[in-house]
Amino acid sequence: MLIKIKNQKLKLALMLALPLALSACSDDEVEVIKEVEVIKEVEVIVEVPAPVPTPVDVSYEVTITNLTNAQPLSPAAVVLHADGNLFEVGMVPSVELEKMAEGGMNTGLLALGMASASGAGAIGPGASETISVKVQDITDAKLSITTMLVNTNDAFTGLNALDLSSLAAGDSWSTTAGVYDAGTEVNSEMAGTMPGPADGGEGFNPTRTDTGFVSMHPGVVTSDDGLTNSVLTVQHKFDNPAIHIMVTRTE
Amino acid sequence: MKQITKLLTVSALTFATTQSFAANVTVEIKNLTQGLYFTPIATVAHTSDSSLFEVGEMASSEIQEMAEGGSLAGLTTIATAINADMLAETAAGPLAPTAKVSGSFMTADSNTVLSIVAMILPSNDGFIGLDNWTIPTEAGTYTVYLNAYDAGTEANDEIIGGGAPGVPGMPAPPFLTLGTNGSGVTATETNTMIHIHPGNIGDDSATDGKSDVTNTVHRWLNPVAKVTVTVQ
Q: Which of A68, A157, A187, A216 to mutate to test the interface with B (most CBs of B within 10 A)?
């Protein structure tokens, strides 16, 4: 802190107020010329560093509702990122996306964001969960959400890179989302290939056996509808949309 | 007291060009499916009192030849006759799964609505459809998702046959991997009007079974296409 005091015509009363302002400074930084008994005027110029602005929290609540009949959803990844896409129809899926879509593991996708939050657990059919995520000072983040339909080989649903810049505090925005296919594991529906309760089989496997691109999902066939080796039944069929999403900016 | 001088930056002003009814329109069509192809796509801007197809009504012979065999000949003739604007780029070739195609045209004053049709492969008479979508007059980018329709003109037997109107079976272009010797899923078409397609059934045998399409590859859920329209 630098305090400079110019000696001008001065009223003593003003001088008496100065020690308080100077108390935080060492004496050698201060030049004070006193002429007592003379009426003086003092101009005090105090230069302090610009105050560090207090970070402003920007918080969102994301409520996900499972609209399917018998497809539990893996713990959802709610990711705030600056740019780019977590998934898009036609793109080659990232390993992080593959791990989520095949095995319900969301840690890789969560790490891609400048802020992110995971759901506490699986969201069962008919259930919903509200997940909070907070970032500071950034109101134009992109919001992405992903969650696996666990009784499938590599089906997932969610939202990619929603621009939040027009969402003011207190605003809500809703949508529904269809089901995507990660394109990393062939939709065999066979025993041992799906991590959900209908099978209890394998989750993530680094070998890619399908198209290699993200697309909309063609749906599960099931043994009831002509796929002989499927362990899925008519109960596990789904159609679009699979989830309802509500985003509320709370601050 | 310090004098602080502020430098004011004046942002450049962009002047909008004089608006007329004609619009410079860019249309991008993306195939969202995992295993379906679209035949060359008719993208047509036309007057609002015309219509290429109407859900719940019988398909015209021109829609029938598009939906059963992918031919745009009849639709192109109609488009020319009604002074419609038609995109050449989207009609250039088949559109593979997740591929996209785009083109731009300057639409005429009176051509205020957009229609899009293309056959879905493999299918008997399935097509993607956009029917008389009003082209916005305000500049911007707009997104429309398309469903799969059934022309109602041919039974969905799902076996290899012909693509000419009235010839049963599906066309089998070389880029499709189809089975053979299917016995036929059905021989009748209950709803002979244009309707939402019930979807392919398929089977899991490449050499027999009911269908020549593969049930884990050639099914779909709506929407099947994404249309992005940019009006300048």
A: A216
CATH of the domain at A236: 2.60.40
Query: What are A81-108's pLDDT values in tens digits?
Result: 999 999 999 999 999 999 999 999 999 9
Nearest to B220 among A90, A218, A229 (CB): A218
Domain match, A141 and A243 both: yes
Measure the CA–CA gap between A80 and A250, rounded to whole angstroms: 15
Q: Are residues A142 and A208 in the same domain?
A: yes
Q: In degrees to the nearest 10, what's the CA dihedral of B172, B173, B174, B176?
A: -70
Coil, helix or strand for B43?
Answer: strand
How many other CB atoms sit within 10 Å of the CB of residue A227?
22
Q: Quick one: DSSP state of residue A73?
A: B
Best-predicted range by mean pLDDT among A9-23, A48-62, B62-76? B62-76
What whole-number percentage of chain B has pLDDT above 90? 90
Range of the domain at A222: 57-249
Which H/E stretch holds residue A98?
A: helix A95-103
Q: What is the pLDDT of residue A39?
A: 61
- Residue owning tokens 């509500």: A246
In the predicted structure, residue B152 carries a pLDDT above the cut 70: yes
Question: A165 and A84 in one domain?
Answer: yes
Are A103 and A184 in the same domain?
yes
Q: Which fold has domain B23-231?
A: Immunoglobulin-like (2.60.40)
pLDDT at residue number A246: 98
Q: Which of B180, B154, B158 is nearest to B63 (CA)?
A: B154
ipTM, two decimals, is 0.86
Contact A218 B202 (CB under 8 A): no
Q: Which residue of A has its CA nearest to B202?
A: A226
Contact: B219, A189; criterion CB under 8 Å: no
More confident residue, A23 or A241: A241
Q: List the single residue in A186, A211, A219 with the smallest CB-CB distance to B219.
A: A219
Whether A174 and A122 map to the same domain: the answer is yes
Rounded-to-integer distance, Cα A191 and Cα A201, Å: 7
Which of A85, A89, A213 to mutate to probe the B interface, most B CBs <10 Å? Answer: A89
A168 & A198 share domain? yes
Give the pLDDT confidence of A204-228 residue by residue, as tens digits: 999 999 999 999 999 999 999 999 9
Instruction: Examine residue A32 and state whether it is found in any structural domain, yes or no.
Output: yes
Residue ranges covered by each domain of chain B: 23-231
Q: Are residues A70 and A128 in the same domain?
A: yes
Nearest CB partner across the interface for A215, out of B34, B202, B216: B34
User: Nearest-CA distance from A132 to chain B in Å?
Assistant: 29
